[in-house]
Design a protein that fits this description.
The chain has 91 residues and is mostly helical. 87% of the residues lie in helices and 0% in strands. It has one domain (2-87). The chain contains three helices and no strands. It is elongated. The protein starts with a helix and ends with a helix.
Amino acid sequence: METILTTVLYISLLLHMGMIGVTVWRVWHGENVIDRLIGADLLGTFTLAILVLIALLNKDSLYIDVALGLAALGFVGTIALSKYLADEQMF
């Protein structure tokens, strides 16, 4: 049973890495700033998913702690950039 779980985790890791490639392309070649902001937020989400998958594969909870910190920073960054785009001022 553990072999099946490991195989599924590796396949999921490869799929997430592929989706990161597509997302980086979208951030790089976005049509406007909103598309790039959404792509950057999605890039953070995929990075979190990859960190959790690595934590499951290595059986090490340190990666989950790093993922939680990255999620908090990503949330604050997305809110700040969205506010800047909406009001053209930061505060």
